[in-house]
Amino acid sequence: MTATTTAPMATTPPRTAPHPSARLRAWATRAPLLPALIFMIAVTQLPFVATLVISFFDWNALYPKARQFTGLDNYQQVLSDADLRHSVWTTVVLTVAVVLASLVLGLVLALLLDRRFRGRGVVRTLLIAPFLVVPVAAALLWKHVLYNPEYGLFNGLLHYVGGPQPDWISTTPLLAVEASLVWQWTPFMMLILLAGLQSRDQQQMEAARVDGASDWQIFRYLTLPHLRRYLELGALLGSIYIVQNFDAVFTITSGGLGTANLPYTVYQSFYQAHENGLASAAGVLVVIGSIIIATFALRVVSSLFREEAGRA
Amino acid sequence: MSTVAVRPRSDRRKGAGLGLVAWLLGVLFFLPIAWMALTSFHSEQDAATNPPSFGAALTLDGYREFFGTGGGASPWPALINSTVASVASTLFVLLLAFPAAYALSIRPVKKWTDVLFFFLSTKMLPAVAGLLPIYLFAKNTGMLDNIWLLVILYTSMNLPIAVWMMQSFLAEVPVAVIEAAKVDGARLPTILARVVAPIALPGIAATALICFIFSWNELLFARVLTGVVAETAPVFLTGFITSQGLFLAKVCAASLVISLPVLAAGFAAQDKLVQGLSLGAVK
Question: What is the ipTM of this complex?
């Protein structure tokens, strides 16, 4: 509360001529920021510049002497390589499917948890748990303990009802990876959407109810518009994390059966095939894709951020 | 009048029904974890049956196998490496992020939002894009298979999240308190340590827990940059990717033990989890 009244004073310092002591003070206020800023530029930006440079070279780590500048050849090769193009498509399918499914499930769960009922805290805790399993461990759990065709839990439960005993991973490999990721990411979406639901204007909802609006009308015309930006935020943050997913693909299918996504392909092309130039070009393409998503993400975050700043 | 009298009752019945649905879904989502826990206490023979043996005798054999008393590789070095990488990187993150977040939340810096969004944008750069140069750098400087390389990388991975989170927590510290300390002649380090930190402590703790979780979970960098010496717990888990006969109880014990620190940290930070994961955009 005190911040509300004093903040404007703090943000507009008394206007003085560029006095040496004022400049000194400006640096003193900027100084705490510098270590973090310099560290981030050194550790995150420099390697990317290096990736960009390497992507213009024909460079196989097993033949270091044959390294030479090839211009855009790597990009041409990456874009015309059927496997790589397939991994771009896999990345898109994987990301879109997981984000949409976990968003819809998360919304249902958030709406259920927004109501008061006995044991709500316990249910919330149960629902968050999947997100708090180490990703590799979660992938192992799905691969060996749930999907295993002979003694996995899924086929074990199907056995009771006399159902079929499918080999989940080899018949529907991508779906198998997606299901495990949806299980892990639904809690994340639920938490964001629940925060959105709880920030609704209660008086407005009450007024609508008094005016005789049905539950569906309140959901459709009040809740959903309010949730729109939280849905966007969940979708975009989810996309950023899932586009980069490596753990589930690596663990469940080891990139086989057409489930290799771009991060896995980049990993494989330099870690196993030692094709540094090609791996870098693929990496740059991943970055370009991410920048497209990130531009939208930053816009959503900054609009929410400005709203928060305006409210403070 | 009649609608007013009827509505609450039907609402209550519907509310109870929906509560039941919520419980059902909660249990369904938790089922794989519960099954993992139960299987970890079964013998390997009971773990691999179809139909599943729910009521089989309980044993600690899976845990004994996992901890290497049965002759396999001991997970302790990996667990210690993960602890070092997660704790040390979290400390570095806090040391770097706290002053930065202070500068940004008090907002004396011109274009402070640009700086804030620069931090965020680095989080959106896929880690895999910088992996190769980092690998080559580590190889040429002899830093491969060195846990401190992971500490540096995890620090950079979590710094943006921490700056954003802490910035939103520190913005809640009343400016008047800081001004008063300045008038009393306190210098910046004193103000940070004695005035700001105590008020923002719950937020700082939540930030630390979330950074710890992300470092503990990380696989890609650890897999590429470590070998025998600096192997972390998730890399240790990748040893279970290919089936090794009857080993379900051992896999479940391993997965559960390695997930325990994350589950503990996550539940401890439960209330601030959303704010952290949404980079401070959602409160």
Answer: 0.87
Q: Please tell me the distance from the alpha carbon of residue A192 to that of residue B275, in angstroms, as a whole number.
A: 8
Residues 6+ apart with CB under 8 A from B204: B94, B98, B166, B169, B197
Please judge whether B123 and A240 are an interchain contact, meaning their C-beta atoms are less than 8 angstroms apart. yes
Between A43, A145, A284, which is nearest B248 by CB?
Answer: A145
CA atoms within 13 A on the CB side of A190: 30
pLDDT in tens, A35-80: 888 888 888 888 888 888 888 888 777 777 767 787 788 888 878 8
**Which structural domain range is residue A276 located in?**
82-194+227-311
User: Measured between alpha carbons, how far is A55 from A52 in angstroms, rounded to an integer?
Assistant: 5
Report the predicted TM-score, pTM, of the whole model to 2 decimal places. 0.85
Determine the residue among A108, A134, A229 to mutate to test chain B binding: the one whose Cβ has the most chain B Cβ atoms within 10 Å.
A134
Q: Which amino acid is at B193?
A: A
**Dihedrals phi, psi of B220, to nearest 5 degrees:** -55, -55
In this structure, is residue A110 part of a structural domain?
Answer: yes
The answer to whether the CB atoms of B130 and A51 lie below 8 A apart is yes
Task: Give the count of domains, chain A.
Answer: 1
| Dist. CA B141–CA A299, nearest whole Å | 40
What distance lies between CA A257 and its chain's CA centroid?
24
- Tell me, what amino acid is at B1? M
Dihedral, CA of residue A110, residue A116, residue A120 and residue A123, to nearest 10: -40
Average pLDDT for residues A5-27, to the nearest whole number?
54
Which residues in chain A have Cβ-Cβ distances shorter than 8 Å to B256? Answer: 137
Residue A149 covered by a domain: yes
Q: Identify whether A72 is part of a domain.
A: no
Give the distance from residue B141's alpha carbon to the nearest chain A alpha carbon, in angstroms. Answer: 15
Contact across the interface for B262 and A157, Cβ inside 8 Å: no
Please report, for the domain that includes residue A111, its CATH number.
Answer: 1.10.3720.10
Q: Do B108 and A13 touch (CB under 8 A)?
A: yes
Asked whether residue A294 is domain-assigned, the answer is: yes
Contact status, residue B210 vs residue B153, Cβ threshold 8 Å = no
